[in-house]
Amino acid sequence: MEQKTENKQENKTPEKNVGHPGHIPQTAGNDAGVRPPRILAWETTAACNLACKHCRGSSTIHSAKGELTTAEAKKLLDDIRETGTPIIILSGGEPLMRSDIFEIARYGTDLGFRMTLATNGTMITEEIAQKIHDAGIQRVSISLDGRERTHDIFRCIPGCFVDSMRGIENLKKAGVEFQINTTVSRFNVDELEDVHAFTKEIGAAAHHFFFLVPTGRGAELTEFEITPEEYETALEWLYGIHKKTDLQIRPTCAPHYFRILRQKAKEEGIEVTPKTHGLDAMTKGCLGGISFGFISSVGEVNPCGYLPVSAGNVRETPFKEIWANAKVFNDLRDYSKYLGKCGACGYKTVCGGCRARAYHETGNYMEEEPLCSYVPPKFRTKNE
Ligand code: SF4
Ligand code: SF4
User: Fold this and answer.
1) Ligand 1 geometric centre to CA of 254 (Å)
2) Residue ranges of region Disordered (predicted)?
3) Prior bond to 93 cis, omega within 30?
C-alpha cells in the first residue's frame, strides 16, 4: 500500500494548505477539537500490480467490488471541498491501475486541492509521466525500501526496483517532483543511512520513513517488526540526520519521534519552536482523525489506512459530517480518553502513540502504543 505523499511547502508555509474551516462545529470536551483535515489519503483502488510483503490492504491484481465510480469520486472531492483544501493523496493499491485516475486528479486540481500521487512507480512510462504532469499532480511519492536486492525481495517481484527507477527518470523528464517513501522494518533498519544517501543521489525532494504497522499482509510479518529499542535507535538516528540533511525528512507512523525530538532538544538546551524545528514544532505524531483521514476504495472513512475502525461511508453520509461527528474521530481528538502509558504521558499531545498498533495489539484503539519504550513517571517503579 502506498499511503502518504506530503507537501513540499509543509515546512515553510503550512497555513497555505489548511484552507478555510468551513462550518465544521467544535465539539465540547475535545482537546484537539474538530479542525479541518489537512491531508487525506484516498485508496482510489485496491488493485495493485505488485504483492508487497508489508501491504496494508493485502492488494491483489483485482479491484475490490463496488469501488467508487468516476461520478462518485468527483462527488467525494466536491464534499471534501466543503471542509477546505486538504492535500489529497491519490493512493492504492496502485492508483495507476485505475483508468480514470487522471480525470479524477484534474478534477481535484481544478477544485483547488494540492493533488499528489502515491505509487510504486513501476507503471510510469514517459507517456504516463506526462499525463501526471498534465493532470496538475504536484508531487509523486515512490516507495523504495532499499537498494535493488532488498527492495525486490520486500516487494516480491524481481526487477521492480529497476522498473521504479525507470519511472523516476520519466517523472524527472516530465518535470514532476518526487519523494521517496521507505518502509522501515527489521528487514532494512540497518540500511537506512544507505537508502537515504541514495534518495539524495537521485534528486528526490523529500524522504519519508514509514514505520511498519502490522496490518494487512504486514500482520504476518512479525519477524520483520522492530523492537521498541530498535525503534528508539532508528528515531534517534532520524533526529540526527534531520539536522544534517538538506532533504525534507519525515518519520511517518512513528509518533514518538516527537517525544524524542523534545527530549533531545532539551538535552541540547534548545527550545522547540518553529524557528528551531520548522513544522516539527507545530505538528504532532499521530494525526489520524485529527488532521489526517483515509478513504477506502469503497468509500469507508477511517482515521488512517492501518486502523480499520469505520467512521462512516461517503456513499451514505457527506464527508464533512463524518469528519465532524464520527465517534472514532472524536475519541482520538480527546486526549483525556487515552489509556495506559499514553494516557499518563506528558508527551501525549505531541505524540499520541500509534492508535493502529494499540488496536491491533489490544482491540482498543485508545490503549497504549506497544512499541514505545518511554515510561511516564506515574508508571515508574521506585528503582527506575
Ligand atoms: S494510528 Fe498509527 S498508523 Fe495510523 S496515522 Fe496514527 S501513527 Fe500512523
Ligand atoms: S507513552 Fe504513548 S504518548 Fe508517551 S511517548 Fe510513548 S507512545 Fe507517545
Assistant:
1) 8
2) 1-33
3) yes
